[in-house]
Design brief:
This protein is mainly beta and about 200 residues long. About 10% of the residues lie in helices and about 50% in strands. It is built from two helices and twelve strands, in the order ααββββββββββββ. A twelve-stranded antiparallel β-sheet has the order 6-5-4-3-2-1-12-11-10-9-8-7, with helices on one face. β10 (about 155-165) and β11 (about 170-180) form a beta hairpin. The longest helix has 10 residues, at about 5-10.
């Protein structure tokens, strides 16, 4: 399987539910104003899930290559997006049907493991929490950066760095292949270009 397809299925399908709704959407200014206070400890705040939410990502920094992720429906406790992703937030964190993408407490160094199949184990660790981050979609005050590692074979580990912004969701994905000697080779990256979120109660 090509690494590019891994990115779409793991990075996007498992981690993207982006933004773009109708007329009742949150704006960048509203998000910025809400972020002036202390960082939220609510895991749901770092991946807003609602039907109609939409996020648009640039691939490798190219404005002419984008991926749109839109939440289409809620079914069986999961929000389904147009990329085949199924996400939910429970008392432990943000998850799809196989893994936790973000798990509390939201503190640097927090670690967890997802056994996604007999031959595949993903190891996650929060690298930073409560820090600012940027993307073409804007600057955000309270972000969490997570590193996920999954050994492909004896020589290669796939490393997926995910950055979540409070009140926005996933703002950046960086995928690299790490060799056994520690050398990392960037594979692809996605950054949030725009988003629209349904306001609660609409």
């Amino acid at each position: 399987m090509k690494l590019s397809s891994v990115v779409v299925r793991w990075g996007l399908g498992a981690s993207l539910v982006v933004v773009g709704a109708g007329g009742c959407a949150s704006s960048r200014q509203q998000v910025a104003e809400e972020q002036e206070s202390r960082p939220s400890q609510s895991l749901a705040a770092y991946y807003p899930l609602a039907v109609g939410n939409r996020w648009t990502y640039r691939v490798n920094g190219r404005a002419d290559r984008t991926v749109d992720v839109e939440v289409l429906k809620e079914e069986d406790g999961y929000f389904h997006d147009n990329q085949g992703g199924q996400l939910s937030v429970d008392g432990f964190g943000v998850r799809d049907r196989k893994r936790y993408l973000l798990r509390g407490p939201l503190a640097e160094g927090n670690q967890w493991t997802n056994v996604v199949s007999v031959s595949s184990t993903e190891r996650y660790r929060i690298l930073q929490a409560g820090v600012p981050c940027e993307a073409p979609a804007g600057s955000f005050n309270h972000c969490v950066r997570v590193e996920a590692r999954n050994r492909v074979d004896a020589q290669t580990t796939l490393v997926n760095a995910l950055t979540f912004a409070e009140g926005v969701g996933l703002v950046r994905i960086e995928v690299s292949a790490e060799k056994s000697n520690g050398e990392r080779m960037p594979q692809t990256w996605l950054e949030l270009a725009s988003f629209k979120l349904q306001q609660p109660g609409r």
